[in-house]
Specification:
Layout lengths: L1 H13 L5 H5 L7 E13 L2 E12 L7 E10 L2 E8 L9 E11 L1 H14 L5 E14 L5 E13 L3
Length: about 160
């Protein structure tokens, strides 16, 4: 019995201050991740690089410390852009954090997307794109990894 109490005390004492209780709290809400900007960078060979602006919202009363993040942006089911970063600042309690990350395209997925768009479109100047942003936040300490998904549709009308 004493060894159980010591083990529980060790686990609780090793949790980072303010973070361990955040994810144990039944009122804990996953942070929100939204795509704010997408900027073309230099092209390397056949791969296009992007600078992606993300907005991370922490709706909790505790600051969340982040080890790193991985993310993918899919269009119409094709994983087009992906990247990782280990330079994510702490997500302050009830705070909003903007981060800018670099990511690259998957050339073959981009070609498959273009082929599917031209095959399905009745109007070559109008496209409907379904997007899905998947982000995985790896929190420091014993907190769990958070998987966040945002989905939606964007209608694009091109002009001649």
């Amino acid at each position: 019995m004493t060894s159980r109490i010591i083990a529980i005390w060790l686990v609780v004492s090793l949790l980072p201050m303010g973070q361990g209780c955040a994810w144990l709290n039944p009122n804990f809400e996953s942070p929100q991740v939204t795509l704010e900007s997408l900027e073309l960078l230099e092209q390397r060979g056949l791969s296009q690089r992007f600078r992606i602006g993300l907005r991370l919202l922490n709706p909790n009363s505790r600051t969340l410390s982040v080890n790193g993040m991985s993310y993918t942006l899919s269009l119409n089911g094709f994983k087009l852009i992906s990247g990782v970063s280990n330079r994510i600042p702490d997500l302050l309690a009830y705070g909003e954090t903007r981060v800018f990350l670099q990511a690259g395209t998957d050339l073959f997925e981009a070609l498959r997307l273009l082929r599917s768009l031209t095959a399905q479109s009745q109007d070559p100047l109008h496209y409907s794109l379904h997007y899905q942003l998947n982000a995985k936040l790896d929190l420091k300490g014993l907190a769990p990894t958070l998987n966040i998904r945002r989905m939606g549709t964007v209608d694009l009308a091109l002009t001649r």
